[in-house]
Every structure is written in structure tokens, then in C-alpha cells.
Amino acid sequence: MKYMKKEYVYTGQLHRMQALLNSPKPLDKFIGAFCSLNVSLMEDILDDDVDCNHFSRYEFYSHFVGLTDQCHKNGDQLFRVHRSRCSAAVCMEAAGETYTFSGNFTGNYISLHVFMDSDKIKSFYECITVKSPIARQHGSRPLFLSNFPF
Q1: Pair type for strands 120-126 and 51-52
Q2: pLDDT tens for residues 56-68?
Q3: What's the CA angle centered on 147, arms 141 and 150, to 5 degrees?
Q4: Contact 106, 75 (CB under 8 A)
């Protein structure tokens, strides 16, 4: 049985997350809310017209609740965020900014393409072709919103 080395939440990480949540930029707030694994923060940040991985906003919240519950059960208290890139030859959504969110305990990760329009989040989609050092860590596995139905 492989034991993962738990990464504890440090004050610096909490300050960084708080800075993202207090930022005037919608993308920073989105990243901070996603990293905090807090559904109510996410509800406050997303507009009704945001395309959430081809889910309605309310379907996305249900999937996000399932994801956060699973992360907490596995010992993750938050996600760390990393800029990533995907395989543009394979990915239909490669034009957006790509971020990989990884659990602080398990290293399990989910990658999202985020599309902005006039400093507002227009849409975000999961990326399954991500190229990130996090995705190559031994023992980490990908997470998908659609695996956590409401």
C-alpha cells in the first residue's frame, strides 16, 4: 500500500487563496473559489450565463459538491493551482487558459480551460489532454466533474 505524503495547509497558502478571493479580477476569484473547494463561494462568483462544462450552472454546482465531498473524504483540504497546457492537436478547447487544480494531500487533479470575454468568465471546460508536471506525478489520478453526478 502506497502512502501519500500529506501536504499541510500553510499560512502562505491561505494568504494566497485569500488574495485571489479578494482580487477585483473575476478569473482570480474563480481560481480562489475552486481552490478552496467551497461551493457557496463558487455560487457567488459565477454568473447565470456561464457555460460550466456544458452543464447548466445548477448542474455544475451539484457536480462540484460531489467533487468537493470526494476530495474531503480523501483528505484534500484544498486544491493547489498550476498553469498548464493541453495537446492542441487533440483538444477542441485549447484556445482558453488552462489550469490544473491538484489536491494538497492526494495529488489528484482536475484541469480546466477557462475562457474570458471582456474580463468576465464566459465558459470553462475540463481538459483531458493536459500536459502538466502534476498530471505526471506518480500516484496522482485525474478527476472529472462528470464522475460526480448530482
Answers
A1: parallel
A2: 888 888 899 999 9
A3: 145
A4: yes
State the DSSP string of 102-113. EETTT--EEEEE
In a 10 Å sphere around its CB, with 0-12 CB exposed, 13-18 middle and 19+ buried, how is residue 42 labelled? buried
For the chain, the first-to-last Cα distance in angstroms comes to 31
* pLDDT for 94 beyond 90: no
Cα dist from 82 to 1, 2, 40, 71, 122, whole Å: 28, 25, 23, 18, 20
Classified as helix, coil or strand, 148 is coil
Q: How confident is the model at residue 134 (pLDDT cuts 50, 70, 90)?
A: low
In CATH, what is the architecture of 11-147? Roll (3.10)
Give pLDDT tens digits for 16-34.
777 888 888 888 899 999 9
| Residue 121, C-beta contacts closer than 8 angstroms, at least 6 positions apart | 26, 27, 30, 45, 46, 47, 50, 114, 115
Q: Alpha-carbon distance 37 to 39, whole Å?
A: 6
Computed over every residue of the chain, the mean pLDDT equals 81
